[in-house]
Amino acid sequence: MGITARYYGWHCAGDFRRAAAGLFLLAVVFYGGGCYPEFVSPISTSLSRQMDDRVLGNWVRRIGGREVQQVSFFPRELSDWVDIVFVYGIDLRERYGGANVEVYQGYRALIDGDDYLCFRRRVKDEPNVLPEERVFYIVGYEVDDDVLTIRMLSLDEIEDVIDDGDLEGEVVVRNPDEGVFYDTILVTSSSERVTRVIDDEGIDRLSEDDDFHTKVFYRELDSWRRY
Question: Which domain of life is it from (predicted)?
Fold first, then answer.
């Protein structure tokens, strides 16, 4: 069927509440990015692992020779969960009003030797959102010395998995009259089923090898200014 949408960052907000709560340009997704699948249930927390020390700290990238983005990972004491701070709109013209910040919480999961990150908006930043209304995003990642590569899941690939009957979910179609501003997919399967599909299919099948789905960050920029 194919998904069409206007893209923003890590993912795109599926309804007005989430759109207004950030117009989501993160979570490590990043401008030029777009809608990514949403999950009612993330990868099973039984597979969570303490975040690799190599990932902790700050990572930056410049997009198209213009905007700078930074994603930072901070540990929580005695927990596998981390805080994820995404700053975007750095080094843009003054009329844009300066940088923007989004904060998420998430955990690392290890499946068949591959690293994944499950994340959502921080609970304390959404005091009026019921637990059953919160959604997760899932990405694969690799870290190699001073390079962090984040691989977003593909709407089209997840839609194919749903069409094959391996996952349950629905296409949430853009409908501004009802406060839904972007097409996306909401996966409603259990954590166990989501985990099994990711284990069976792997990130190479569930993502795509292009700039939209693959985000590369570095420990340092050659220069923080373009001039």
Answer: Bacteria
Six-digit token pair at 197?
A: 């599909």
Domain-located, residue 120: yes
**C-beta of residue 141 within 8 angstroms of C-beta of residue 114:** no
Which structural domain, as residue segments, surrounds residue 127?
16-218
**b/e per residue 8-39 (b: at least 16 CB within 10 A):** bbbbbbbbeebbebbebbbbbbbbebbbbbbb
Contact 57, 49 (CB under 8 A): no
Residue 56 has pLDDT above 50, yes or no: yes
Look-up: residue for tokens 């919480």?
105
Are residues 100 and 68 in contact, defined by beta-carbon separation less than 8 angstroms? no
Is the pTM higher than 0.70? The answer reads yes
Distance in angstroms (rounded) separating the CA atoms of residues 31 and 22 = 13
Please state the domain count of the chain. 1
